[in-house]
Amino acid sequence: MQAPELKTSLPGPKATAIIARDQQFVSPSYTRGYPLVMAGGDGAVIEDVDGNHFLDCAAGIAVNATGHAHPQVVEAIVDQARRYLHMSGTDFYYEPQVRLAEEIAAIAPISGPVKSFFGNSGTEAVEAAVKLAKWSTKRHNIIAFLGSFHGRTMGSLSLTASKAIQRKGFGPMAPGVYHAPYANCYRCPIGLTPENCAAECVDYVEDQILVHLVSPDEVAAIVVEPIQGEGGYVVPPAAFIERLRALTTAHGMLLVTDEVQCGMGRTGKMFAIEHFGIEPDIFATAKGIASGMPLGVCAARADVMTWPPGAHASTFGGNPVSCAAALATIDLLRRELVRNAAEVGAYLQDGVRALMEKHPLIGDVRGKGLMIGIECVRDRATKERAPEERDAVVTAAFYKGLLVLGAGKNTIRLSPPLVLTREQAATAVDILDQAFTDVEQQRIGRG
Ligand SMILES: Cc1ncc(COP(=O)(O)O)c(C=O)c1O
Fold first, then answer.
1. Alpha-carbon distance 403 to 6, whole Å?
2. Is residue 130 in contact with ligand 1, taking CB distance under 6 Å?
3. CA 195 to the chain's CA centroid
4. Preceding omega of 4 cis (within 30 degrees of 0)
5. Which of 260, 267, 289, 295 to mutate to test the pocket of ligand 1 (most atoms within 8 A of CB)?
6. How far from 179 is each of 154, 230, 328, 443, CA to CA, in Å?
7. Is a pLDDT exceeding 60 seen at residue 295?
8. pLDDT per position as a tens digit, 79-111
9. How many A from CA of 266 to the centre of ligand 1?
């Protein structure tokens, strides 16, 4: 399928009718930015119900690692579905789950033996990681970071500190969670640059949280996204992650990395933490792992994952069809797609960075592989955020046939399927160029 190819005005008549039904019967809590109604997909191209083709740089929120309907993944799903759909790994054995645990141990960013717990989503993977950290250390406090997103079930939500609306009306949160600033070099609160930074934001953990609020020997874990996703695609300096590793080791805490968004090859390495050359004790992964089938994994050093039968389980977690999809996905990632994410990601990021010369609305371009953030500002000197303009660019891109999403207050995220080609990356840059031009001209028109 070629994209973009727009045949109707947007939304077309079929999409309009479906959206009207959605508004009557579906929860209004979802955050749909534009009226796309999917009918099918192929690689990095989506067809809507009216036959319009879009270039997909959203991948169902960074999920479709192998692209839409990759034949190898579909075949694995169909083959497994013909045999059996479910047998609950909680009470029974089945080989696809064992094989997947073996694969995860082989690709894990942990050098020793690794064991895996299976759930259905990112939030469940994080819940499992937090419970395991508490169980394993016999401590009950957790340190997490402002701007981070870890999920929306009550345990993960207590760690999530991305947007207040996500927490509003749901309190009180789980006790014993402390938040520290995340290392955001573009907006460093003390004016440092990555070159002269010694991750002073970790000082806040050491000198404030661990001095005034909680004793280090009562902290089970520090939970961190190696690259912040929902919070704005923020890449921290290596010193930040290195200091967190040193701090956790010094105090017998566990380092838990949330790779739900940045993992599974998206950043050009299998796991984002590999960019920093350190190892976590526990990590959570989901989204891209099964190309769109529901699966979340909490993996840990085998000597940490020693909880007894009954301590944690899930009826559906590690569903055999999802495991089959994950095995096919990991095979494709290892053989070609992690490399493609690194190569096409660098090309795409260069292309987007070049747009900075033409578009003053772009304040920062950052990321790794095919996890790229474009931060929109009204003024490069003051870095005043441009949230409305960001939304306008996302919308303008949609009407030109490119799907992207926002992240954080004023950042556009590019999280395409990892099968994206150079040609498609060039098309994405062209459309973004036009979308920024439109929005900047409207701004000038408004005075
Ligand atoms: C880093 C991170 N952790 C956890 C989650 C929660 O994943 P899920 O929506 O599958 O529960 C997300 C979702 O965006 C995420 O980006």
1. 13
2. no
3. 26
4. yes
5. 260
6. 16, 16, 37, 37
7. yes
8. 999 999 999 999 999 999 999 999 999 999 999
9. 14
Residue the block writes with tokens 């796991």: 271
**Residue 151 CB–ligand 1 contact under 6 Å:** yes
Mutate to test the pocket of ligand 1, among 259, 261, 262 (most ligand atoms within 8 A of CB): 261
DSSP type of residue 442:
H
Is this model's pTM higher than 0.85 or not?
Answer: yes
* Encoded amino acid at 291, one letter: S
The pick from 287, 298, 316, 413 for probing ligand 1's pocket by mutation, whose C-beta has the most ligand atoms within 8 angstroms, reads 287
H or E segment to which residue 62 belongs? helix 59-62
413 DSSP β-pair partners: 373, 405
Tokens of 129: 């990681």
pLDDT per position as a tens digit, 101-146:
999 999 999 999 999 999 999 999 999 999 999 999 999 999 999 9
Amino acid identity, position 73: V
Q: Is 121 in the pocket of ligand 1 (CB under 6 A)?
A: yes
* Cα 233 to ligand 1 centroid, rounded to whole Å: 13
Picking from 29, 31, 65, 67, the residue whose alpha carbon sits closest to that of residue 285 is 65
